[in-house]
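In the previous chapter we treated chains in isolation. Here, by contrast, the input contains two separate entities that must be folded as one system, with a combined length of 770 residues.
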Amino acid sequence: MKDKYGFPLTKIGIIGGGQLAKMMAQSAKRMGFFVLVLDPAPDCPASSVCDRVLVGDFYDDNKIREIAEASEVITYDIEHIATRILKILMDEGYKIFPSPALLEIIQDKFLQKQVLYAAGIPVPKFKLLESLEPGSFKSFGFPCVQKARKGGYDGRGVQVIRGYEDLKNILKVESYLEEYVDIEKELAVIVARSSKGEVKCYPVVEMIFDEQANICDMVIAPARISEDVKEEAKAVAVKTVEILNGIGVFGIELFLTKDKKILVNEVAPRPHNSGHYTIEACITSQFEQHIRAITGLPLGSTKLLMPAVMANLLGEKGYEGPPLIEGLKEALSIEGLSFHFYGKSMTKPFRKMGHITILDENIEKAIEKAVKAKKLLKITSEVRK
Amino acid sequence: MKDKYGFPLTKIGIIGGGQLAKMMAQSAKRMGFFVLVLDPAPDCPASSVCDRVLVGDFYDDNKIREIAEASEVITYDIEHIATRILKILMDEGYKIFPSPALLEIIQDKFLQKQVLYAAGIPVPKFKLLESLEPGSFKSFGFPCVQKARKGGYDGRGVQVIRGYEDLKNILKVESYLEEYVDIEKELAVIVARSSKGEVKCYPVVEMIFDEQANICDMVIAPARISEDVKEEAKAVAVKTVEILNGIGVFGIELFLTKDKKILVNEVAPRPHNSGHYTIEACITSQFEQHIRAITGLPLGSTKLLMPAVMANLLGEKGYEGPPLIEGLKEALSIEGLSFHFYGKSMTKPFRKMGHITILDENIEKAIEKAVKAKKLLKITSEVRK
């Protein structure tokens, strides 16, 4: 017998209403789903593109229960949420993807590394930091990277320690040490795995970082690396998601070392900044793919239609207030450029306010156009900080 | 000095909240605009993907004024709206695109034909029907097509008169007669023209009609016709929009006659069913293009990334009630298929409930896939009529 879907299809609850939830909601609404969002801000980016907003904290058990009860499938757009209540709800039979058990592993970056390492996934050398005494760093060896076990994102919670002179900057939180990898490129792969076990992989991309803010600045799709390295990167990314028994879309951040080894840096249990280019450049966007994966629908084609470059639009330094966009007309006249603005009510330095994607048959031209657009487009404010 | 856009950019008011408004709103929200919609139904398709819904009739002057006052640019997703109040508002300085003067021409199909004919645009032979006596039809010549001057859409208001025997079926409304054109293919071109006068043209597509319902059933992009005919079709479409001084996106429906002539059939002053494929298949969708055009932004690239076929999902005969979707999983497992469901609360026979778009390098394969998907996907209801 054929499946019959009623209207308004499955109700999808998203914990977190930021730009990822906004783009998930837009994909889900396109397909006819009913979408609810839980966020502390009633005017969060997803608020105006979904059916209902529940205003509440991600650590408020009652609010998490409320969205679960109003939804048929629950997902999230951030990893810093309460897992205890999610586990209780899952035991009660609610569908939560990715699972709270997986989320707990992801939230603790040391545990994440341990799980991946134990499963034979290549990762940088790492060790729990049991004391903040200089000896603990020295015995691991300089240069090294200190990483907070919990709560880090967009470069926060990461400290490079080149030698004794950097020990004044160490993070005073539960953390672990990682070898300082000699990186040729930072790569990323978006992997989707559905509740039926189907797996699809997007093209391998290059991530270029803003060195000052340590935030992903630009993504180049496809990565300018050999086919062999691409195949290896994809195989590692898929294996990572399978080991974690992941359901949904995952962003797997990888290091390509100078000696051509692939190492897993970090796993994001959700659509990822490195996959925004898929909205314009692939047949199925990572956001639609996530919705298909968590609702048990067949996954869509991940085919790249044209090379693409994505660049984040970060709030300019020196401004903090309601955003202004400078240079929009000039940027939009660049052939092949698409503009996304998330609708955050306030800008602040380095805050992700939007992004652009440029499609061009020639990837080097796409990069040039992205650099030009980044120079034109500035997110400022009347309010100087 | 560079342009500066504030948040939430320009406020866009859309009169009508159907599927076209929904897709316009989704494009506008992606770019960060504030979107209001006026519709009699509070749960109209656009309602859950925009910032604010005004509930009211399209012929209610007060409601039209209310949305105008709350917006910086006004547009519409249907042509059957009151133009008198729009003209008053325009005189008061409100920005309304396309203009009410253009809309009045479009609304009266006879006037539309007269204006195009007078400007040298090729159209089928036509004549006002001054009386419903058999002699008026005979003197024009059989076979002919009687068309209502106003209110027709999706095949309504059109009557083919092959001879005296069909005169019992004539429309008893103000109408005109058109020659019965010997058609090789029905074509369409989406043309965008911005408030700055910039013009961009999408690829020429083929429209395949459901003969029973006389509704566009399938769109094939690009059309399988010679380059010469494509160039001529585009030139006629662009000239049509320029003659009308159109601002926004327009769907120009064309006949390709058996003797390879291009004739303009009809103009839609808004994004058009024949351009839905642009969401997945072109760099800039017709909906984003409409938003760019009416807000004075530079137009985006209309490049076709891959051949595509769009098929409408119409309500099945025999059902009228809350919709059910049959065969969704089976259809979504077809490689390259994207699914759109508009979220209308009730299905009825031949109502446009959603559409699918299939991308495939090989257009004939895309057509095969679309035919297969149409057989799998059925919009029914628990309620039989």
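The mean pLDDT of chain B is 94. The radius of gyration of chain B is 21 Å. Compare these points with the single-chain example from earlier in the chapter.
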